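Methods: example folding runs. The two proteins below were folded one after another, and each record is reproduced exactly as written to the output file, sequence line first and structure-token line second.
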Amino acid sequence: MQSQEIKSVNFPKRVLLLSVSTGEGHNSAARAIAEVLNQKNIDCEIIDSVSFKGKQSHSFITEGYNRIIRHAPMLFGLAYVLGAAYDNMRLPSPIKSYHSSYADKIYQYIKDGNFDCVVCTHLFSMHTATAIRKKYAPDLPCYGVITDYTAIPFYRGSQLDAYFVPDSRTRDMLIKKGIPSDKIIISGIPVSPKFSQDISKSRARELLNIGADKKVIVISAGGAGCGKLMELCKRLKAQIDGEYEVYVFTGKNTRLKAKIDKIAGENGVIRTLAFTSDIYLYIKAADVAMTKPGGLSSTEFATSGVPMILLKAIPGCETCNKRYFIKHNLATYCNSVKKAVKQTLNILADNSRSELIELADDKKVINAFAATDIVEYIIENNN
């Protein structure tokens, strides 16, 4: 395949968002940016970059990730530690080599689709985009978006026009990995503009037909599901009554939804919700939220201003996310289901968590408009 320069007029006309379905956060970040692009009448498309490696490889990576997260989270933590040690030795990156191997296929997709800009929300796709620039299209604008409050191993060797990061600590970590400081933009993690809409709790409940007198709890288990979620729902059911309503976001995990529905029974106190575009309304309607410390989901809750309890973290990225939210008084961390339920009921009886969130917001800890800022940066720096 011959190198061919990709040029644009009135940049950008079409944006290709490259994500990877290892957890739902990377896809959510891509959708948030796509939402802003569409608001600006810029055409875009989201694809899973690993799918270009082949169906077998895609299943191995995405399904393998989900199985490890559900059944052996400590193994993921060990892989994170070993990856960091390997990366620090500055040895050739197996991640870079593997995800550069199908760059030709994505480049062909870019040409066929007349895309003039690429935005990556996962490390894997950032290495693929780097290979595309090196081999085929050196002038193709490519950007990376980091969706956790840390920089995971193996960013070394990626070369994009800019990297959008959540905070100064992540910026410093990237600099140590060899990313030029002038290419690192502290933007925050992009979430849908819907989460920053000025919708009151009462209005959100009215739209969702939730009683104004109810004590509302929302629970997000993440894309792969939370291993202790069943126990959490059982304990909540045993300790709450009809004045409560609990909404559990199960996403696309149909097996998880069926199991929780069985626990909930027919009393209506605990209700599951499959993947819904109205998740922001449920969060705004809530008195308290419970979630794993995923970078994206936690940022969505913080942006909405709901008191947040972080459930037991998976070693690695989530540990760093947990530290960030606790440091800035945006969440309470509970490492057991028993403690999480107790803290939830305490918050419902005390408004102090809301006051802490308002204090954190005054310090501008979370940028609710990160998606807009990212899109505007890309437009301004290419026209």
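Second run, written to the same file directly after the first:
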Amino acid sequence: MTAAVAGAKARSRSRSVVYVALSVVLMAVGAWVTVPFGPIPFTLQTFAVMFALFALAPVEALAAIACYLALGAIGLPLFAGFKGGLAALVGPTGGFLVGFLVAAGVALACGQIARKVAFFNAGESKSFLGTKIAAGDLARSILMGVVFLVVLYLFGWAWLAISAGMSAEAAFAAAVAPFVPIDACKMILAVIVAQAVRSAIR
């Protein structure tokens, strides 16, 4: 391995560490922006996680989410309401936190599979709410976002119903139904911001 190649790999690793660290900070700040609403508050945490999915390489995105959860689990106040510790992860609403990693893994896997389909590789640029983005990237990001939210809802919904002893209907009404419209808006915003960031750092 030449010195130039070694130096390039070192710089790439350094950039990845920085991207992961910044994403963890963004997730924490997003969690702190809280609007109380039933058992699950409205936060910008989901936006931050989806931004990582769309803006980072798959390994970086998973690493950022895993680091965020690990740091919160050891007690740092990184979750909504400045909470931290294992109790926040294993409590009734912890399924939505743990679900971030599960849903991200499924969404990223779907994104990788989609890359093999011509429709998700179209290079023609489209204007998406004022942002220029390749048609394939836009379609793939929306697919990943929808898969992410569906898996996250299912995971968190089941966790809440079981751990809190709620009926499936009550858990759905409390923790899923109110969030669908706003999370869809977060997904669109995350796509736009991620594309802008990726274009700026190329």
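Comment on the second run: The two ends are 25 Å apart (CA to CA).
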